[in-house]
Amino acid sequence: MYNPNAGERNNLPKRNHLIKVNGEGEIAVQPDTATVNLGVVTESKELMDAQQQNSIIANKIINALIALGIDKNQIQTVDYRIEPDYDFSSGQQIFRGHKITHILQVKIDDLSTIGKVVDTAVENGANSVAHVQFTSRYKEAYYQQALVMALNNANNKAQTIATTLRVTLNPTPILVVEGGATIQPFESHQVAFAKGASSTPIQPGQLLIRANVSTEYKYSSING
Description:
CATH topology of the largest domain: Alpha-Beta Plaits
Strand content: 35-45%
CATH class of the largest domain: Alpha Beta
Number of strands: 8
Oligomer: single chain
Order of helices and strands: HEEHEEHEHEEE
Structural class: alpha+beta
Helix content: 25-40%
């Protein structure tokens, strides 16, 4: 019996045989740069008094850090807030005064001085220290290395699957999607520092720089 669609079906392309895998790469490196947030929090009934106190302390900290060798361009205000402060009694709000919060972010190139920077800031009036973060000037170059590892990892996985299935793998992927970089630095939580204490020990540890990719490979079976 004649089938008018038979020729059309015979001309349809064969369904692609695909192996889809994810690849991961990770490299541990020594950080060479750090940032730390140093805060000045002042409170007063009078707004102008709270602002003035805050400004005096913040300037004192900045001048002390510059004297320590920190470039003034590496000291930046990242947060400045004026908030009313209340007590609560018998379900009622009782106005206490105004709270001023000024957060300075300091970039540190010499990691051996981090503890001294923190101590100097505290000695000069900082009453909040948070978010000590480490990074590297060369993180992009390290990421490229991790990306090569991720691609090799994906290729090895695909080859393992193909070998197990006893099929022939085309070693060049037909699709590669970069997942982006993940950099996991050491980060401290907010810590209280006592005046007069010995130099604060802050350890930089290592950075873990990760890359991941999603890939697709073609394969062919013995029977095609």
